[in-house]
Each structure stands twice: as C-alpha cells, then as structure tokens.
Design goal:
By secondary structure, this protein is of the alpha+beta class. The protein has one helix spanning about 1-20, and strands at about 25-30, 40, 45, 50-55, 60-65, 70-75, 100-105, 120-125. The strands form three sheets. The protein has a four-stranded antiparallel β-sheet with strand order 1-6-5-4, with no helix packed on it. A two-stranded antiparallel ribbon has the order 2-3. A hairpin with a 5-residue loop joins strand 5 (about 60-65) and strand 6. It is elongated and about 60 Å long. The N and C termini lie far apart (about 55 Å). This is Single domain-containing protein. It is found in: Secreted.
C-alpha cells in the first residue's frame, strides 16, 4: 500500500515540477491600484489595458496590462536550460573535439524585450 502512495506522490511532484518549469516564461497576476481604476499599476507606473512596457525591476522582461481589472502578464526570457547550446553559434571548429561552451549574462539589459534576452557566451577550446 505504501508503494502505491509513494508512486502517486512522485507522479504529483513530477506534474507540479513540469507546471513550475513552464510557468517561468509567462506569469499572470493582478496589479491593481484603487487610485487608477481600469489600469494596471506596477512600481508606481500606470499601464493601460493592451499596453506593454519593459518591466521596471527585472533585468529583461515585458509587463503587459491584459485588461481593465488589473490582470497583467509578465514575460521573461527562456531559462538558460531551455536554450540551444551556444556551440551552434560557432561556424568552424573540430567536430571530433568540440569546445565546451556555456551561456553567460544578458548582453544588453537596457534593450527592449525580447532583444534584451540575447546572452553572452564563452567557449573553451
């Protein structure tokens, strides 16, 4: 009997883990302020429904006011774990002994979204 409960628990954890992984790119929640009915408010910035702005506190994200009840979507860059290898950016290398490449920081956090998602990368030959 314990094995059945353990298996069910592991399955639930896997499903929750999958949901959390997918939730990293889009997040929805309410950003209401009684002083600005029909709008979304984030960090004292008033945003009209349908309007998108660069997120005021995140390095690279877009904040979109979805409707007049204050529901908004925050879109972030794909996590590094979801990106293709930076090795694909290299044209010429020894295929038998490829370099070890890894993603680094954002190139330009001042750029508009999604341009700000571009990352630096390093390769060790």
């Amino acid at each position: 009997m314990k094995l059945i409960y353990s298996s069910a628990f592991v399955l639930v954890l896997m499903v929750v883990g999958l949901a959390l992984t997918q939730a990293g790119v889009y997040t929805e929640r309410y950003f209401r302020d009684e002083k600005h009915p029909g709008k979304c408010v984030i960090q004292s910035t008033v945003v009209s429904p349908g309007q998108s702005i660069k997120h005021p506190t995140m390095d690279c994200a877009e904040f979109t006011c979805d409707n007049s009840i204050g529901l908004a979507t925050i879109e972030t860059c794909d996590p590094v774990s979801a990106l293709a290898s930076p090795l694909e950016k290299l044209k010429d290398y020894d295929r038998a002994n490829p370099p070890k490449c890894s993603w680094g920081n954002f190139k330009n956090t001042k750029a508009t979204f999604p341009k700000c998602c571009e990352r630096e990368y390093t390769c060790v030959f």
